[in-house]
Protein 1
Amino acid sequence: MNKAKRPAVIAGNWKMNKTPAEAAALIEEMKPLVAGADCKVVLCVPAIDIPAAVEAAKGSNIEIGAENVHFKASGAYTGEIAANMLTEAGVKYVVIGHSERRQYFAETDQTVNLRTLAALNAGLNAIVCVGETLEQRELGYTETLLKFQTKMALTNVTEEQLKHVIIAYEPVWAIGTGVTATADQADEGNGYVRAAIAEMYGKEIAETVTVQYGGSMNAGNAEELLSKVNVDGGLIGGASLKAGDFSVIVKAAGK
């Protein structure tokens, strides 16, 4: 991390877990554990949980995010949710292009870009996910793929809007598998992302962008991962559903 140049952000991605009542209870448990954190703390929750989560987080340093956003303001898109719906509900962040969305719900690099633009135009902070599969890594395509995905996601994003973008490097082979990239692999992947941003906006601007690592970051490995210069925080899956584990990661980001 380099907090002198860019903020550290720890964001939980709850995926399809927790009812509204359970969400509120977990946030109440988390609030005293992460109070005064020396990093930004975000919880991205299922759409049904947003009102309860926003209410539970009031008065704390926890900000609430969503897990998806559509690129249209309204229309016949059953099951989707528009950016202005999120902002009116009190959402500040949104996860875009997670590998599970790409794998199960036909997200493409193009739709990731459109959703990113819609989020930014509505005043949301976009957490944009990129990452390679194990096969792509073994074929030696990690750098090429990460740079391509990053550049595609940021197409037509202005330098001003980039201030509200976080890129999360999530190697697909390390999501929900219990397999974590080594700290050096995480730093290398995040470095490729930052290099792609530099190629688009210049090195000085790239140094101001928060690049998270996701992919089985947990209480046991967070400190080592976060010690790397290009790892500016984490997008946390399973560990964000446990108040104690999540608070350990938040504390690690404050060192």
Protein 2
Amino acid sequence: MEPENAYRSGFAGIIGRPNVGKSTLLNNLMHRKLAIISEKPQTTRNKIRCVLTRDDAQIIFVDTPGFHKPKNALGERLNRAVRETLSEVDTVVFILDGTKTIGKGDMFIASELAELDTPAVAVLNKIDRLTPDQIEAQAAVAEKLGDFTGVIPVSAKTGENVHAVIESIVETLPEGPKYYPEDVFTDQPAAFIVAELIREKVLQLTREEVPHSVAVVVESIETREDRDLTDIETVIYVERDSQKGIIIGKGGRMLREIGTRARAEIEPLLGEKVFLKLQVAVEKDWAKSPEMLKRLGY
């Protein structure tokens, strides 16, 4: 019999359709920004691991790309990453958009979860935009999707009821050790997070003008020996010359704005001033090329 004060630890996979608020919820669960956010679907491309350590438990959250019908090699890789995550985690957090009709995409994910023995909690997100009656109705529909440990209404945006998600996860975790030291919040290297923050700013500032055919590669991160300054060189890849022009902007204004906004979040992450060099390169149809995807780290 497991003692009451046993330390619990394990991996919690965050899953849901594109744009249901997975990354926003993850950042709120962690009380810090570690996953990028955009109104565009399929913003998350890699499995992002974030570590939440408490006195009684350690949760390693795995944020996954949105499950969707793939249209190219990139889409197929994103779905593969989701399935790999589901096979590896100790518990699943299934996020539903409470403002949308629960439909085929949600039912598809629920059917995938039904094939597993892994416990899952359903999270009804965006309740800050719903009335109490709407929340109750959507929760009732969500309950019928599968055998969940619970259906928890939350607002990832405001943080309402997010603590209940953490408690629900902890209850399903097995007894185990601390996998990471208490001061570790993610297992991703700094270069990965820097690249993601830059990509986020590109998506936010260009909106509909540049689709998801954007990738960012950090070529180098070097700290100067003579002063507290880190030099970062990056390349923003797009698929079309027209997209390159949009990202650079008239007189380079858009690229400077991307750099300014990204640097404001990169500097707190690294704990020192940053000199950020951004270049833009065209790699035609990179999202359709398995070789290019591998080169870009996808």
